[in-house]
């Protein structure tokens, strides 16, 4: 691994993701960083370099095969991020194995199926808004806990086919994997518990199939034996559960926060001079829901710009930095501007590993965000924006909570 500049040591608390990314970018669009346990990796902050890396078929996500240090026995099993490379799921496979998994899962995320979910999302949003309306006008509520998170969870639960009885506990196990302040042992224990719970759900579903992804994967397995192994089904469902909640929650919350802190931009939408889609897309660019995603491993030396990444060296996609690349967006790259004509980002990935649920995530945000502002037209932050704490992670880009002051619902204030 090249080592001309000292690596930026990643702050696992995620206290200042954008400030840290600026430091990484100073070293170039592809630069070295240091992860927990002293593990060296590459962080890609440049849009063009990111697009090239994401589209390169030589960039594997299978650590079992292509992470040289792991294959050589040099990685401490307590490394907190090890599951991001080794867990058996759609996100950590390569080549034919990945195509097979993705093909089975993609049947649940076709445009027709996504659009068919609109009434379900509308109903979930309406129910959550009705619940918020029972709070006294002027009271403080956490929109992450009371709105964005339960919406995202409800939708992905339905897609996957998670039984009602399991919905209260299984999410907590998966959340530990993105909390990069935890030790490797703590993360491993939570991940193991979550996988055990999911395995139990899969076994229960075998005797009670329904119209959901879990049933689809079981049916493909039992049809002729060419489907996924049990561990792959469990791992893939667990991965989709985590990404379907955390990513969508962050997109919704980041969009609401951006509009509350930029009332001029909100007024552009209300006056018809910009769209809600403009706002969602600009949020994806400037506040990517996933900040710094592990891992990719080149199957051979790969040249990105003037940097050569050696075969088997770990790579992280720095989506939070890529969307703010000044080479694409100029000096205002870090500013939120929904009228920006070019909103290029890679926040849902690109190429063979692009987010399979990106259309669903966009649909959830495009329903939930305007519905909230229509229902509570005078919604306001309950604390200064500077006091809203980030999540305890450098992998995700979200907030611990979003406290707001509820205004009178539109029907009451009319």
TrEMBL record:
A Pfam family reported for this protein in Swiss-Prot or TrEMBL: p450
InterPro entries given in the database record: Cyt_P450, Cyt_P450_B, Cyt_P450_sf
GO molecular function, one term: iron ion binding
UniProt keyword terms in alphabetical order: Antibiotic biosynthesis, Heme, Iron, Metal-binding, Monooxygenase, NADP, Oxidoreductase
GO biological process: antibiotic biosynthetic process
Metabolic or biological pathway, per its Swiss-Prot or TrEMBL entry: Antibiotic biosynthesis; mycinamicin biosynthesis
CDD domains given in the database record: CYP107-like
Tagged with keyword Transmembrane: no
Family of this protein: Belongs to the cytochrome P450 family.
Protein name: Cytochrome P450
Organism, as annotated: Micromonospora inaquosa
Lineage of the organism: Bacteria, Bacillati, Actinomycetota, Actinomycetes, Micromonosporales
């Amino acid at each position: 691994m090249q080592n001309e500049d000292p690596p930026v040591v990643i702050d696992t608390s995620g206290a200042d993701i954008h400030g840290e990314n600026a430091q990484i970018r100073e070293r170039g669009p592809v630069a070295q960083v240091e992860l927990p346990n002293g593990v060296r990796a590459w962080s890609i902050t440049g849009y063009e370099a990111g697009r090239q890396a994401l589209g390169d078929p030589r960039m594997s996500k299978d650590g079992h095969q292509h992470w040289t240090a792991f294959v050589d026995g040099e990685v401490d099993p307590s490394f907190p991020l090890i599951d991001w490379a080794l867990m058996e799921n759609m996100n950590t496979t390569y080549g034919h194995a990945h195509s097979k998994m993705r093909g089975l899962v993609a049947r649940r995320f076709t445009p027709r199926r996504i659009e068919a979910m609109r009434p379900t999302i509308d109903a979930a949003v309406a129910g959550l808004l009705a619940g918020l309306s029972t709070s006294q006008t002027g009271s403080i509520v956490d929109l992450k806990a009371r709105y964005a998170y339960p919406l995202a969870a409800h939708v992905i639960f339905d897609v996957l086919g998670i039984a009602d009885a399991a919905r209260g506990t299984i999410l907590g196990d998966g959340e530990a994997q993105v909390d990069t302040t935890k030790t490797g042992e703590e993360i491993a224990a939570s991940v193991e518990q979550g996988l055990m719970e999911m395995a139990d759900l899969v076994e229960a579903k075998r005797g009670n199939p329904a119209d959901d992804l879990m049933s689809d994967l079981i049916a493909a397995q039992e049809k002729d034996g060419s489907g996924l192994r049990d561990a792959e089904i469990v791992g893939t469902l667990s991965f989709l559960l985590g990404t379907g909640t955390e990513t969508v929650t962050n997109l919704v919350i980041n969009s609401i926060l951006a509009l509350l802190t930029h009332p001029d931009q909100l007024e552009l939408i209300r006056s018809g001079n910009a769209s809600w889609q403009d706002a969602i897309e600009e949020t994806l660019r400037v506040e990517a829901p996933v900040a710094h995603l592990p891992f990719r491993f080149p199957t051979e030396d790969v040249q990105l710009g003037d940097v050569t990444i050696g075969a088997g060296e770990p790579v992280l996609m720095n989506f939070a930095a890529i969307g703010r690349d000044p080479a694409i967006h100029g000096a205002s790259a870090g500013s939120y501007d929904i009228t920006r004509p070019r909103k290029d980002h890679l926040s849902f990935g690109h190429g063979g590993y692009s987010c399979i649920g990106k259309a669903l995530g966009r649909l959830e945000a495009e329903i939930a965000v305007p519905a909230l502002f229509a229902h509570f037209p005078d919604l306001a932050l309950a604390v200064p924006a500077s006091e809203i704490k980030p999540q305890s992670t450098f992998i995700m880009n979200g907030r611990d909570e979003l406290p707001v002051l509820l205004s009178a619902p539109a029907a009451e204030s009319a």
